[in-house]
Amino acid sequence: MSEEAPRHLLFASPDHKSNHPLVDVPDHTPTNPEGYSIYSNIKDGKSTRSKSMAIVDLFDVQSNKEISLEEVMDGLRYVMEYRIKGGRFPSLDYDIMKRLADGLLMNMGNSGKKSRFGGGAIFTEEADVAFQLFGEFMLEVQEFRQAVGEKSVSDLRHALKLDVRCGSGSTEQEQQAAVALIALLTTTYPQFADWKELVKPEGHGNVQKCMQEHAEYVRAEAMPEIGGVILAPQALCFDRRIKRVLKMYRTSLQSGLPSEAIPALQEHYGRNVLPEPPRTSVFKMLWTQFTDFMILLLLAVAVLMAATKDFIPMAVLLIVVVLNAIIGFTQEYKAGKALDALTKLSVPKAQVLRDGVTSMINSEELVPGDIVIMEEGESVPADLRLAEVSQLEIIESILTGESVAVVKDPKEIRTRTRKLPIGDCKGNAFMSTVVAKGRGKAIVVRTGRLTEMGKISAAITGHTKVLTPVQKKLALLGKLLVVFAIVLCAVMAGIKIAYHHPTGESLKVALSLAVSVIPEGLVAVVTVTMALGVRRMAARKAIVRTLPAVETLGSVTFICSDKTGTLTEGKMGAAELWTSDGVTYGFTESTSLDPNKGHVTLMAGSGEMPQVLGKTLDQVPAQMLISLMVSSLCNNSSVVQKENDEQVEIDTPDKDTNVEPAVGVPGAVEWKGIGDPTEVALVVAAQKAGFPKTFFHDLGYTRIYEQAFDSERKVMSVAYKAPLDTASPSGEHYEFVLAKGAPEEILNRCVGYLPTVAPDSLASPLDLLRPSQVELTQTVTEEFHDHVSDASGRMADGGLRVLGLAYKKVLINGGGALDTGLGDGLDKFDNLKDRKEAAPESHKPTEVDLLTAANVNDGNDDDDEEDVPPGYAESDLIFLGLIGLIDPARAGVKESVRICKEAGITVVMITGDHIKTASAIAKELGILEEGGRAIKGEELDLLSEQAIAELKPFPNVFARVSPDNKLKLVTALQSRGESVAMTGDGVNDAPAIKAANVGVAMGIAGTDITKQAADIVLANDNFNTIVEAVEEGRRVFDNILKFIVYLLSCNCAEIFLFLLCAIVNVELPFTVTMILWANIIADVPPAMALGVEPAEPGLMNRHPRSPKKGILTYTSFGVIIFQSMAMTLLTFGVYMWADKSEGHLDYAHAEAFTFLTTLQLLQGFLSRTMRTSVFRVNFFGNRWMIFGVVLSFVLMLIGIYTPGFNGILNLVPVYGRTWAKVIVGCVIMVFLSEMEKLVLRRTGWTM
């Protein structure tokens, strides 16, 4: 190949250079539907945008009918061939390349058809193109190589499917491409140097054979050198063997790191400290309370009142300001506790092994590669990969919310993704968790910011809380009122002076009116209304931590809720058992842990009642008994009975002294499952049938071997010694392998199944396990395979988590030698074992390389694997059946979801469960409707926040998601203007909860940090409580709006009355003192009473109030103008009718004051509803309103009729004719108010 030739992988002999699989670009330009620009910006050489769009399409193509995967792939091939290849774009945007790598990996596994039982696959043409493009981008683009290098070996093993591409069903071109990519990966990346780690163990033979057959086709160019020190990246390494991890971090379990290498490692990795949270001083918190715009406004009003020598109203305002500052400071101080709690999570000291010596050091000095020794009671100082353990159990409740200690196991976990849930990382220990039992030795793999705690800390401290909608709206309203007050003051003073009134008097009246514009009770009423809302929500099991969250809840447009424990009961139970003879069984009270409650039922046909089965051997079918035996014995969980603060174990594996559950145990208060909820449900299912573990243990079944479940095999199996009287003199005896796991994986390992067995053919159902002269099993056929697949699909569509059950009998007497003759394959791969985790030959050794060379060269890096005895292999099994587990929906959740939809709120389910199970539950609850959408977390990873926000339709179900997916989802929704409520329980949910408009933490399952980061804590972890809280939030905002409309209507009535009198040049109807007295008695008591007004009917039938909409809309402005003008004109008419001659002017003033103040108090009653007729509201529904109006009315009478005091207010007593006018005015006001509400109802205008 010439130096000028483009760099690519060649798969042909020198005579046939055109026949290489990675480059086969068509001569024609592919077609493209209108509206998509796959080739955007190609003409000017900018390929980044086209790839960005294609990456979105790689995800969206499955649901977008306007574009096909073939067209997306053609577009990428065009870009590669004509714009990138040949070094034209050796460097591109890293984020795009990272998502492109994810997209190609996701699509290269697509197959059009599976061979029998899923043993192989025929890849689609698009999948082959994705595989080819993956190799070409690796060769051409630096950032793509970097993104691939950050992938875990498990991710690549699952996506590349090299075992299938090298299988017998693959094409020659697919085999050549697979061998070439293996060569490229193993020679480019030290961490992928062992090709066997990129292939499933059962496929090693196929791949090795393929490499031998196609060795002459492999030729890969050397990749460009990457400058700088080459050290292992920080990662959990849960899928790597211990010796491999030791080599990666250049350390040793016997001596640890050399002290001389620590400074260089610290310089590269940084110190092991959590990000320092920003701190706000107490003084600054207090100062912030007094710099709020509304508070500044009230202080300005107080100054004006002091200038006019109205000291009593000034004192009232100052009290309001101080109270508001105290409440605001308290709330902000509590919110800061979440950040303070983070500082307590760092561990001060660590026991570390360096230079072969164990010593206590400051944990800040730890670096990846350090060997840490953990003892009981100690806190974990960093994220660790466990190497040696002795009965080690760690409490991880600070991260997961689960108080039960996790049993640790250093064995690697083969999984598809590096984003394994924390609770499943059995081979890791995390910073700030606590050793509950045992001891261990571990390798530091992540420190400081990159630890799980560091990421959470950075996310919490990095997101500032935005102002709530009501805070923004009140601030805007205050600014508008200031502008209005200034304009009004100028107009009023101008008019008075124009009519030659004294300038001083004119300015004083103008200032008094300006003060009237400002609703001085607004801040106090808002605060009190929210506080009362907090109290009501607490009674409904929703604890509000930040006051404005009460109102914010009322405006949420999206509720993103966890499934388990919030939408569902959080109790896994067996719902259905389908056996291989086609019979279906059900379980009653399946989620109750009490083994004495519930039965197994034989499911009958439609219209027939299920038959309850007995609990003795002669009353149960053989297939059901053996299936439940597998459920119970292939299990590591148990159920305990709590009595008098003691735990009595009911079912625990491998113990001779199990306690049988006694019926009607006196004093039994609680049953508790210990272990994985799925396994607990299987234990309970067997107990309800009457056959717990102890039943089989008492018969003599003894566990002798176990292969633990892992997400790669998706199977768990155990071996039991059988109590069969068949032992021969030569020592032959029978043992059983019992297996459970994913239905497809179990079925693929089965060669037979149990058909229908006649009840009278066996003396006991357990005789199925005995050797028999008659073969009771039948061979698995394609028809049976489809039969099982249909049953599994039906159960999954019903929201069940489905597991397959199988067993086999093993005749034990010696056993053949294990087959270990795979070898290493091609000569060029022979020496790769010795070069794993090694730098390339051209790499110049650094100081760290030289100091740690002894650790790297110390022996090989392969752990001694425990070989599975041939008889215990998970193969040649007999299929028994399927068991479906369910976490039932909480009572009332379906109705709450319906209420949310009517209220215009979109409910989104977020779960770590399988997408099919999650979708079924979502459909049952009404969350996912016809035409709705469900996506997986791995698909979400491919999309930018902008792309997520633009998804149409927006998904209602997010399955298999991680906590960082939650944060991404929140920010994406907020970017499109949505108001989001997000639920969570673990510490890793805290960033998303803090970023959401309303963060909701679980009170039962939630961790302390999550609760402190949240705005609301659910005391009962119930979704229904969220909906009730939303309704309460809407009620709070409704009431805030009611008293704002009421206050402004009353104050504007005074203003318009004064302006009208000033314009016609008549004596003003009130003195300045009367204005202030009217504001004191008419504003605060009725407004406070409106704050506790019950919710109006149909409150949850309205759509959420847009966060962009102001607190006052055009409609509410119109209502304020209408109500204020009605009161103004009626009062103006009464005042103009009155005798204002000398000697009667004081009476005219008193009459106008009485008339307007009474109308204002009446308006308090009328403001109880915004649209509903006041006659449809229970008069005594708000007793505080009655009390407030009566109090204000009495104060008005005191001001009118009390001698001396009425003189201070410039008032005189009024008589019967005045009260007659008041009554007539009230009747007219009620009529006008009803007409206004009728118009609002008819037009549908919203406030």
Automatic annotation (TrEMBL):
Q: Where is this region: Disordered?
A: 11-34, 836-870
What spans are recorded as compositionally biased (Basic and acidic residues)?
836-847
- Give the record's GO CC terms: plasma membrane
Q: Report membrane topology.
A: Multi-pass membrane protein
Q: What SUPFAM superfamilies does its record include?
A: Calcium ATPase, transduction domain A, Calcium ATPase, transmembrane domain M, HAD-like, Metal cation-transporting ATPase, ATP-binding domain N
Which Pfam families does this entry report, sorted A to Z? Answer: Cation_ATPase, Cation_ATPase_C, Cation_ATPase_N, E1-E2_ATPase, Hydrolase_3
Source domain of life: Eukaryota
Name a biological process GO annotation.
Answer: potassium ion import across plasma membrane
Q: Where is the composition biased (Acidic residues)?
A: 859-868
The entry sums up its family as follows: Belongs to the cation transport ATPase (P-type) (TC 3.A.3) family.
Q: What is this protein called?
A: P-type ATPase
What is the source species?
Answer: Linnemannia hyalina
Q: What is the lineage of its organism?
A: Eukaryota, Fungi, Fungi incertae sedis, Mucoromycota, Mortierellomycotina
